[in-house]
Amino acid sequence: MDMPTKIFSFRLDEELIAEVDRRFPKRGERTEFVADAVAEKLGLDTPVKAKMPPIAKRAVAPKPEKSPKGADMLRPDAVVLLAALRKKSMTSRQAKAEMGWLGLRYENAERVLLSEGSAAVVNGVVVPTG
Q1: Which of 9, 49, 56, 126 is deepest in the core (most CB within 10 A)?
Q2: What does the alpha-carbon distance between residue 73 and residue 70 come to, in Å, rounded to a whole number?
Q3: For residues 129 and 69, is the Cβ–Cβ distance under 8 A?
Q4: Number of CB atoms found within 10 A of residue 75's CB
Q5: Which of 66, 92, 70 is nearest to 79 (CA)?
Q6: Is residue 92's pLDDT more than 70?
Q7: 99, 113 in Cβ contact below 8 A?
């Protein structure tokens, strides 16, 4: 019987997750194990088979080499954000509003700048380091 499924998120202790991953390393095995355990705990006669969606094939671009202060190696959004930060001091919230980017676009660009060392947060203000 093919039942519709829904993604459900919950928290587990890291050691417990590591043990489940050790015992069920293949894709979909952990999901099936957790679904079966929940069904068993609920006293269902038939275990629920959780179907994993197929993995979409996509091209993976190679990661650029790290260049802590070199904006030429950063993602395009990070370069634009860095240029804006060089013109004006802003908090993350102000910069996000100024950029007007939707979704996680701003957060991703800021994360790249912070992780590459091209920007830092000083007293709540995002400042370029170079």
Answers
A1: 126
A2: 6
A3: yes
A4: 15
A5: 70
A6: yes
A7: no
Residue reference for tokens 């950063």: 74
pTM above 0.70, yes or no: no
Q: What is the secondary structure of 46-98 as a DSSP string?
A: S---PPPPPPPP---PPPPPP-TT-GGGS-HHHHHHHHHHHHS-EEHHHHHHH
Altogether, the residues listed in the chain come to a count of 130
- Bridge-based pairing of strands 125-128 and 119-122 is antiparallel
Q: Cβ–Cβ contacts within 10 Å for residue 106, how many?
A: 20
Instruction: Give the distance, in angstroms, between the CA of residue 61 and the centroid of all CA atoms in the same chain.
Output: 17
What pLDDT score does 20 carry?
83
**Closest to 107 (Cα-Cα) out of 89, 81, 76, 71:** 81
